[in-house]
Amino acid sequence: MSAVSIRDAGPVLAGLSEARAATKALIAHLRPRELERVLSPIMSPLVWDLAHIAAYEDLWLSHRLAGLALLRPDLAARYDAFETPRAVRGEIPLLDTAEAHGYMEAVRARVVAALDDRGVGDGVICEMVIRHELQHTETMRQAMAIAGMLPAGEPRLGPMAHAPEWITIPPGEFEIGAPQEGFAYDNERPRHRVSLGEFQIAGRPVSNESWMRFANGGGYERREWWSQAGWAWRRDEEIAVHPAIAAGDTRAPACHLSWFEADAFARAHGARLPSEAEWERAATWRDGAMRSVEQAWEWTASEFDGYPGFRAYPYREYSEVFFKRGYRALRGGSWATAPRVASVTFRNWDLPQRRQIFAGLRLARDAR
Question: The whole model's pTM is what?
């Protein structure tokens, strides 16, 4: 990442404008009462996300980059993701819809003026803020999907392209992670060499049709296919096949699967989930051998952790505080992931019981 100051704010302002247009388009069909109510106990009211987007932009671009005082210091803790966790966001006073929109517009006006006047630094913090808003549009879609409030035409999950059943990846060393040049999140670096044995990975993710065969064949009743923690979760929460899978196109990738379910499916088929290193190796081997990446996130076997030599930047709370806390890593992207965010090195993560994320799986196994 260059330390040279970039005076031309044009490309950054265009990126900020495009992200904001995407946010506005996403919620254009919703009324204030829908934006302001709690849609799920594990998700934020959508209006919280709107004000959080503004608070984050004000903190990083107006305050830390441009050196201005916070526009609304009284809102800083309320819209900080760690100071105010999801569990309490529906129980505290929040800006209403009109106030949240006003806050977003006021912050953006200050940011535009500041960046035009002072430049964008090396551009890294600006890119982080653009992607932050784009990532929140996916998080908001997760809440909207739970409540049946997605815009017309969503979710965009369609039939997968034809692909070989299994792809054999030869043994050897390769580099995993993002290169030093360009933007990447801290958990994608440092790029480092990994040695892998020969393995096989499925040419495409598990489909709705395959998942329904698993479910109808006792997938949610056969204890031997589940880990101890997974079986306890399935039993305690009375988990059955997700309605989106039962109602979806049979040829589309299965979506809204927890890691526990993905792991059980793999066990039932004499396979396993790929490690993060195996997934990235396969995705970058021979121009990318895998098909249907980026319709649904793909769970991996790996616990989310930092790479050797990891250094938090620009703040620990983006990813370091989640390391070794039971979160599982996901790769690829989903139909709701902005192309600007998705990359072959991007790392997502969530708890193994979560189903709100647009996630499925791809099988792997040792070479035969």
Answer: 0.96
CA–CA gap between residue 114 and residue 72 (Å, rounded): 17
- Closest alpha carbon to 255 in 136, 155, 331: 155
Classify 207 as helix, strand or coil: strand
Q: How confident is the model at residue 130 (pLDDT cuts 50, 70, 90)?
A: very high
Q: What is the pLDDT of residues 182-224, one digit of tens each?
A: 999 999 999 999 999 999 999 999 999 999 999 999 999 999 9
Element (H, E) at 153: none
Count of all residues that appear for the chain in the document = 368
Q: Which residues contact 332 (CB under 8 A, 6 or more apart)?
A: 279, 283, 293, 294, 296, 297, 298, 342
Could you tell me the strand order of the sheet in which 364-366 lies? 166-169, 199-202, 364-366
Q: Where are any strands of DSSP class E within 114-263? A: 166-169, 172-176, 192-196, 199-202
Res. 1 pLDDT band, cuts 50 70 90: very low
All structural domains of the chain, each given as residue ranges with its CATH number in brackets, are 10-146 (1.20.120), 166-366 (3.90.1580.10)
Residue 361 has pLDDT above 50, yes or no: yes
Q: What is the pLDDT of residue 5?
A: 58
Residue pair 143/40 in contact by the 8 Å Cβ criterion: yes
**Under 8 Å CB-to-CB from 53, ≥6 apart: which residues?**
23, 104, 132, 133, 136
Give Cα 81 distance to the centre of its chain: 16
Q: Where are the beta strands (DSSP E) in the chain?
A: 166-169, 172-176, 192-196, 199-202, 297-303, 328-331, 348-350, 359-360, 364-366
